[in-house]
């Protein structure tokens, strides 16, 4: 069974913009899967549909076998999503941010899990600082830790390295690789082909709301 299965997904926004126009693909379990496409292609709309933030117009989607309409809470429990926007309270510390998130998901041993995550993203030293005092890179790592708090089998990163310097990019990539090596299926959106090439086992290309390619990276790059 696929980690994510998407069938005929359509989204027309109020105002008439057709952001997704019948998108169908599976993300196989265990992979790092890249969703590539230019700005405005529909990548965020697709991710936000999986997150339950956008109401699709038509089609179906399931996460780890759970249909997002029929079993929304199971679907949500199976996925961690890192949005483009930085989303946490600037006056809570990283420790508090993660502990609260753990509470929301009913994660057992919340303090222990929180410390484990802070170590994994190298934020132990900042555990009790105001989140607003973190650098951009640290904030992004905190976002990833927050998405992983409930140990979902699938992690989705929406444009993880947009506006991020090369050093931080390397750090994020190595963390993503280590999560994948530990069994997490990873989906990332990007408009950088090089990023998708370097990281992903498989790449799907979306343009104008339609899927125009979906192949193992090796084959896709071989054709270019
Ligand atoms: P729903 O997902 O419940 O159908 P919409 O996302 O269509 O709701 O409604 C949000 C409103 O916000 C839209 O009508 C649109 O005018 C506006 N909006 C938000 N983001 C954008 C954007 N990136 N481009 C154009 N309009 C936007
Ligand atoms: P990407 O993430 O690939 O840049 P998006 O999914 O953000 O693409 O946007 C796809 C299209 O839908 C764009 O034309 C964008 O302007 C439009 N769009 C995105 N959000 C909204 C919204 N809330 N309301 C109306 N149009 C939107």
From TrEMBL:
Keywords: ATP-binding, Nucleotide-binding, Transport
MF-aspect GO terms: ATP binding; ATP hydrolysis activity
Start and end residues of each ABC transporter domain: 4-224
Name of the protein this chain belongs to: ABC transporter ATP-binding protein
Species whose genome carries this gene: Sphingomonas ginsenosidivorax
